[in-house]
Amino acid sequence: MRPPRELGVQKIREYLSNLAVEKHVAASTQNIALSALLFLYKRVLKIDLSYINIERAKA
After folding, report:
1. Which of 29, 37, 43, 56 would disulfide-bridge 25, Cβ 3.0–4.6 Å?
2. Nearest CA to 9 among 41, 46, 36, 32?
């Protein structure tokens, strides 16, 4: 467990891709996780993340 400010885009990308590849979550679940992370970084931490290219879950 590390503070979100210490995580970079690469770690976020790895987490979201892990949801799709290893955990086999639904696409909507991955989208919710992505939205929550973007909200946290942009609105709460005031950190603008660049485009996050992730492996998408299968619909």
Report:
1. 29
2. 41
